[in-house]
C-alpha cells in the first residue's frame, strides 16, 4: 500500500494551519515533517500526522504550552496525566480569578468615565477622605506640569511602590496668593491605597472629607482654566454658594493619552458651603 504524502502547502490547507505555524512547530521539534526531499527540500507530511497536529491544537486550547506538549510527546503520551490535568485546572482557576478581578476593575472604570462624560456641566458632590502621594514645586508654566508628572513624580511613585486604586484620581492645588503665568507654586496629589515612607520628592498625607464640592468639566488646554473658573464662580454667585477651601483641578484625559490639547478633559472641584 502506497503511503500518502502531503506537501506542506496541502497539509496546511487541509488542517487550516499556516505554513509559518508548521515551520515553527518544526523548529520547536514538536511536529517534524515525515519526509524531506534531499534534492528539492520539499517537506511532506503523512496522514497520521493529521491526528498529531489535532492533538497539539486541542492541548493548546486547554492551556498547555508548546513546551508542555513537547514533553508529553517525548513521553510517548498525547494525553496528560490526572496529576497534570489537576495542575492545569488550578492554574486556570487562578487565571480566571485574575480575569474576573480585571473585568470588575474595567467595569468600574468604564462606569465612572460614563458618569463623568454624561453628567451635567455643574454638579455638587462630596469628596471622600483619601490618602495621597503629594509633590509640591514651583513650575515655570502649566505646560511644565505634564513632563513633571511623567519624568519625575511618576518614576518616584513607582520606585516607592505606590499602589493607586482604579480608576485613578489625581489633582493639583495652586498655592500662589495671586495669578502668575510663570513660577506657579503647585501641589500635585495622586490617590494611593496606603501611606508610604516620605522621600525627597514624594510626601504622603491623608486629606479629610469635603462634604460638598462644586464640580465642573473643563475641556481644553490648561492655560484656559481661567475660563472655566470664571463660569464656575459666576454660577456659585447665582446659587448663593461660598468657597470653603482650596479648589482642586483633577486630570482625566491629558497629554499621556490624548495628543490634541483641545480634547484634554479635566474636572474643577471647588469646596463650597
Structural summary, described in words:
The protein has 273 residues and is of the alpha+beta class. The protein folds into three domains: 6-80, Multidrug-efflux Transporter Regulator, Chain: A, Domain 2 (Orthogonal Bundle); 82-118; 122-271, Alpha-Beta Barrel (Multidrug-efflux Transporter 1 Regulator Bmrr, Chain A), CATH 3.20.80.10. Helix content is 39%, strand content 24%. The chain contains seven helices and eleven strands. The chain has helices at 8-15, 19-27, 48-61, 66-74, 82-118, 145-159, 225-238, and strands at 6-7, 35-36, 43-45, 122-127, 130-139, 170-174, 184-192, 203-207, 210-219, 248-253, 265-271. A hairpin with a 6-residue loop joins β2 (35-36) and β3. The longest helix has 37 residues, at 82-118.
What is the CATH topology descriptor of the largest domain?
Multidrug-efflux Transporter 1 Regulator Bmrr, Chain A
| Classification by helices and strands | alpha+beta
Main sheet specs:
8 strands, antiparallel
The averaged pLDDT comes out at 84
Number of DSSP helices?
7
Number of strands: 11
Query: What is the second-level CATH architecture of the largest domain?
Result: Alpha-Beta Barrel
Structural domain tally: 3
Uncertain residue ranges: none
Beta-strand percentage range? 15-25%
Radius of gyration: 30 Å
The portion of residues assigned to helices is 25-40%
H/E topology pattern: EHHEEHHHEEHEEEEHEE
Compute the separation of the termini in Å: 94 Å
CATH superfamily of the largest domain: Regulatory factor, effector binding domain
Amino acid at each position: 500500500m502506497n503511503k500518502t504524502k502531503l506537501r506542506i502547502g496541502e497539509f496546511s490547507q487541509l488542517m487550516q494551519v499556516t505554513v509559518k505555524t508548521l515551520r515553527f512547530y518544526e523548529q520547536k521539534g514538536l511536529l517534524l515533517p515525515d519526509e524531506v526531499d534531499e534534492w528539492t527540500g520539499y517537506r511532506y507530511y503523512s496522514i497520521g500526522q493529521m491526528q498529531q497536529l489535532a492533538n497539539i491544537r486541542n492541548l493548546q486550547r486547554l492551556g498547555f504550552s508548546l513546551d508542555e506538549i513537547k514533553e508529553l510527546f517525548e513521553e510517548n503520551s498525547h494525553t496528560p496525566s490526572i496529576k497534570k490535568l489537576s495542575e492545569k485546572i488550578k492554574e486556570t482557576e487562578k487565571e480566571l480569578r485574575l480575569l474576573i478581578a480585571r473585568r470588575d476593575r474595567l467595569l468600574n472604570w468604564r462606569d465612572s468615565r460614563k458618569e463623568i462624560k454624561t453628567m451635567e456641566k455643574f454638579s455638587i458632590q462630596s469628596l471622600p477622605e483619601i490618602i495621597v502621594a503629594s509633590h509640591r514645586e514651583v513650575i515655570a508654566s502649566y505646560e511644565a506640569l505634564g513632563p513633571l508628572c511623567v519624568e519625575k513624580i511618576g518614576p518616584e511613585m513607582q520606585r516607592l511602590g505606590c499602589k493607586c486604586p482604579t480608576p485613578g484620581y489625581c489633582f493639583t492645588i495652586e498655592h500662589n496668593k495671586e495669578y502668575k503665568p510663570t513660577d506657579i507654586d503647585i501641589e500635585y496629589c495622586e490617590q494611593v491605597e496606603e501611606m508610604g515612607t516620605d522621600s525627597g520628592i514624594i510626601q504622603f498625607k491623608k486629606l479629610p472629607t469635603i462634604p460638598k464640592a462644586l464640580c465642573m468639566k473643563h475641556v481644553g488646554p490648561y492655560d484656559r482654566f481661567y475660563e472655566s473658573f470664571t463660569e464656575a464662580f459666576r454660577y456659585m454667585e447665582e446659587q448663593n454658594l461660598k468657597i470653603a477651601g482650596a479648589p482642586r483641578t483633577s486630570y482625566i484625559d491629558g497629554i499621556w493619552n490624548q495628543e490634541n490639547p483641545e480634547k484634554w478633559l479635566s474636572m474643577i472641584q471647588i469646596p463650597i458651603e
